[in-house]
Amino acid sequence: MAAPAGAGALIASPDRRRCLWSVLAAALGLLTYGVSALEVYTPKEIFVANGTQGKLTCKFKSTNTTGTLTSVSWSFQPEGTDTTVSFFHYSQGQVYAGNYPPFKDRVSWAGDLDKKDASINIENMQFIHNGTYICDVKNPPDIVVQPGHIRLYVVEKEILPAFPVWVVVGIVTAVVLGLTLLITMILAVVYRRRNSKRDYAGCNTSENVSPVKQVSRKSPSDTEGLVKSLPSGSHQMTHNRLDLSRKT
Description:
The protein starts with a helix and ends with a helix. The protein has a six-stranded mixed beta sheet, with no helix packed on it. Among the domains are: about 120 residues, Immunoglobulin-like; about 35 residues. The relative contact order is 0.13. The protein is built from four helices and twelve strands. Helices cover about 40% and strands about 25% of the residues. The radius of gyration is 51 Å and the shape is elongated. By secondary structure, the protein is α+β, with helices and mostly antiparallel strands.
């Protein structure tokens, strides 16, 4: 008895699904072949004096060479807001400036895609330019992991730091560590000198103390030995003298 047509379709459906998934996986592998992550590098924050030019540095790393499909976009998020406005685009050697009034006729290209540089210059920066700047680079088939973000502060010329904050922090840290090491070395030298002086003074004291000489006493045996060592004639004279002294 032949199986119903519907049952045959149900039996064949798992094989068809497996075949379909295999085809999709192969297609996805072909599409993603040679694709890697594109990394964007920007400073975390910069300070620009009011009325001067500010350079927004943006570097990127990509395994593929740049070409006609490579493009750069800059966006701006004003301070205190959540909105983002695109104000600059660069592609195929052409600059496309937006119509956003705060940046009109102020932005110029300062990068070099062959050197993986997507930086820009902004002229005559004002306090309205305070905010976050976003650098987005596309270089297909590489995929951007995350665009670069720069926090920019426009300040008065009098309060503009001479060095970036991270440079100042590094210098202060190095100075503190250097002073700590120097003080430690000085204390170690002083401690060693004091110990050497104490050891030298102890040696001199032990050398200056002279031992007490004890007077040796002659024992009776020593006297008897002395008498015995005299000649025999001396013994006779000694006995005669003793006899005379007794008679008298």
